[in-house]
Each structure stands twice: as C-alpha cells, then as structure tokens.
Design brief:
The chain is an alpha/beta fold. It has 15 helices and 17 strands. Helix 4 crosses helix 5. It is globular and about 55 Å long.
Length: 453
C-alpha cells in the first residue's frame, strides 16, 4: 500500500488563504476577473480555448473533448470544478494535475498582484476577489505560461457573469438546461438559459444538447444576435445504433463527419449524448484549424474517464460513485442504474445531499431503486443533517438508517452487503469526494473541509 504524501505547510497555508476567500461568497460579474487578468498580463488571450456551460454533463463532455485533443497530440489544459479530493484536480495539463508547488507560487503572485494595487492612488479601489475568481486567474496564468495549445474551460456557475467568461473560445458548448442555482440564475428555465447563453461569442459556433422549446428559443435568439451558428443534438448531429454495456458503442452522424463503432467506457445512456457534444465541438474545432484525426477521435473517446460519474470503484460487492446533485442528474442516474440492476442482488443506497438543493426532487428519483438506504452527510457546512434527511427518506422507504460520516456509511453498507449486491453512493459531489478519500489511498493531499465549491 502506498504511503500518503505529506503536504507541505506552504501549500496548506495557500489552501487556507483560498478557503478564506469563500467568505466573499458568490459574486456574479466580470469586473474583478478582468482586473485580475490585467494584473497577470492577460493570460486568457495567450491560448486557444473551448468554453463548456450547462446544468449537467459539463465535466464529462469536457473530458471527452480533452481526450480526443490529447490523442491528436495537442498540449491540453483542463479547468473544472469542483474537485473531489484535492484542489489540484481542478487544473490539469495533459491529464496531470497542477503541482502543489505551482499552486503556492501562482496563488502568491495573484494575491501580491491585487493586494499590491491597494496602495496605488492612481488605480481603482482594492479588489476583494472571490475564491473562484482567484482560482480562475491562477488557472489561466498556468495555462498561458505552460504554453498549452488549447484549454477546455468549464463554467463555474451560469455563464454570462461567470469568472471564466473572459475568454474568446473557438467554440461554445451548452450541454443542457435545467433548474439550478435559482437564487443566482433565475427561477425559470428561460432565465437560466439566458445566463448560460451568455457564453456565446460573436461569429463563434455553439454546440448544444438543450431540448426544451423555450430554452432553445433563448439560445438561438442570442446566437442570432451575435451571428453565431448553432448546432443542435438531434438536429445537426446525433447518435445512432447505440449498444449499451461495459463499453457503450454507437455511431456518430455529424455535420461533416460520420463514424461507426465508436466506444466509450463511461456508463449511462446520457454519456453517449455527452460524447456527441464533444464530437460536434471537435468538428467545429476542425473548421477553426484544430485537426483531430479519426484515429485520435476513436482513441480519445475510448480512453476518456471522469471520476465520480457512475464510476465503479470496487467489486464484490460492486461500489459505484455518482455525484448526482439535482433532480435532472438523479433522473439520468436512476435510468442508468435500472439498466444495471438485473446483474445484481440488492441495491444499497448511500446518500447525502446539501441542504440548499432540491432534496425531495433528488430523493424521488433515487429512493424507488433501493432495497436499503443509509443516509449520511459529507464533511461540508451546507450538508443536510442525516436525521433530517432520514425523515424525508422514510416517507418514501421503510428501510432507512443513518451514519454520521461518509466513512461510517460505507463501512455499514459493506458490512451488510453480499458479494452480488450493488452499493451506490450519491447525492452530491461532496459525498463522492469523501467516498474516494475513504476508498483510495491515492497519495493525493486532502483539501481542507469545505473547500470544494
């Protein structure tokens, strides 16, 4: 068994500094980010990029596209959030997370940059940047200085006013739209779609998997205003001849490219749609001079992985992790797990949910699948108390127990499970992160509790 590395004190102090920035909460707006970019020499203008927004599937779509670009020989940056176990997961080049030392160095430079402006009377007032604004400046500086050929950038929240929306991408991707973060983005699908559509840039192609007529109308209206062509899943591109299994296979029919016998190892029918979004984005990149050969497409898709998305992490009993954290993602997860059920005995559900989520909506999708439910809470301030969650579950299912931590919940589920049972751990990416920390001795430094947003 590998020994977990000791984390350098300077890195811990840096993580503490970043954690402290969460006191500034969520500030939707580009002013701070634009000033941070200026302070750091406008790194976002020094690499090509793809921008990925949407309610669900952003990370998987980004992973598929990154995989194809890597297989084509490009040096690829990937910026995603939140992380599962280590902060370094958020910022990767060619699949390798940024080092602790580089996090320390870049965070110090960003901090010195904006704090150093405070005493200059000829400049605007001092910044009070958020965690995500500083992290974005750090990531973009890293990609620029490491000379990536292209970076795949995932939106943090919304799109229009998200800190990442300072880039000028070669293609914009909007995976899908559902209700989320309504306190910030609006309480209707159309309002949320307007925020997501805010990543659309003039004369820049848009790839989307959105399906609701009102949502599509918002996206296409914004695209028309900016003379941006729109490519829609099911209209300009689609998947045919889908064969589910441990390696899902399908045929892709796109705008200019048709490929048969493509394979992906990510489970769930929805991952085929995410792969198609990545393929359509790859077609748009080809038109912009970023070439990905058929061989690279096949190899990149087949090798793509994305942690915590219906990820099998143990066998006999099989344990799956999935970060479904809203009703839409829980619904997709439920469909995928229903396809797996015939191969197993009982399904033991370990679930923890944040208190500000649609708890009832998530439970309505997942609880009917379970023979046994163990409710818990991740090590995160916004997590719903297990007793309160158990009370909600009992209205849907009689066999419910509570565990004070994810570790305790996993130990209880494993002690009760037979070799042919399925254990599903879900409800939040924070639960998944805690589960990975329990199940893997992977040598990664652990973030401070709460630093995952």
């Amino acid at each position: 068994m590998r020994t977990r590395m000791r984390t350098d004190r300077s890195y811990q102090e840096t993580i503490e500094y970043l954690f402290a920035l969460q006191k500034h909460g969520v500030k939707l707006g580009l002013g701070n980010t634009e000033r941070l970019m200026d302070i750091m020499g406008n790194p976002h203008r020094r690499f090509r990029s793809v921008h990925v927004a949407g309610t669900n599937g952003k990370g998987s779509t980004a992973a598929f596209l990154t995989g194809m670009l890597l297989a084509a020989g490009y040096r690829v940056g990937l910026y995603t959030s939140p992380h599962l176990v280590s902060f370094t997961e958020r910022i990767r080049i060619n699949g390798v997370p940024i080092t602790e030392g580089k996090v320390v160095e870049l965070a110090r430079r960003v901090r010195e940059g904006y704090e150093g402006r405070a005493g200059d009377s000829g400049l605007p007032p001092a910044l009070n940047p958020t965690f995500f604004e500083v992290t974005t400046a750090l990531a973009f500086t890293y990609f620029a200085e490491e000379a990536v050929d292209i970076a795949v950038i995932e939106v943090g929240m919304g799109g229009r006013l998200d800190a990442t929306n300072v880039i000028s991408p070669l293609v914009s991707v909007i995976t899908n739209i559902d209700l989320e973060h309504t306190e910030f983005l609006g309480d209707t699908l159309e309002l949320i779609a307007g925020e997501k559509a805010g990543i659309i840039k003039r004369n820049t192609p848009v790839v989307t998997g959105a399906v609701q007529p009102g949502v599509l109308q918002v996206i296409e209206r914004e695209a028309a205003r900016k003379a941006a062509p729109v490519f829609l899943l099911g209209r300009e591109f689609r998947a045919n001849h889908i064969r589910p299994g441990g390696e899902q296979q399908f045929t892709y029919r796109g705008m200019r490219m048709s490929l048969e016998g493509l394979g992906i190892v990510l489970l769930g029918r929805y991952q085929v749609d995410n792969a198609c979004l990545a393929l359509a984005a790859a077609e748009c990149l080809h038109a912009a001079g970023v070439t990905i050969t058929e061989d690279a497409v096949r190899k990149g898709l087949a090798q793509s992985r994305w942690e915590g998305r219906l990820e099998r992490v143990a066998r006999r009993p099989d344990i799956y992790l999935d970060g479904a954290h809203n009703p839409a993602s829980a619904r997709l997860l439920a469909r995928a797990v229903a396809e797996l059920r015939p191969a197993y005995g009982r399904l033991m559900l370990v679930v923890g949910i944040l208190g500000d989520k649609d708890v009832s909506g998530i439970l309505a999708e997942l609880i009917p699948l379970a023979d046994r439910v163990i409710v818990t809470r991740p090590d995160y301030a916004r997590a719903l108390d297990p007793d309160a969650l158990a009370a909600k579950v009992r209205s849907l299912h009689p066999a419910v127990d509570t565990a004070g931590s994810v570790r305790q919940a996993i130990e209880r589920a494993k002690s009760e499970a037979k070799a042919d049972d399925l254990i599903l751990i879900t409800g939040s990416l924070y639960v998944v992160g805690d589960a990975r920390a329990v199940l893997f001795d992977d040598g990664l430094p652990r973030a401070l509790p709460g630093l995952k947003g």
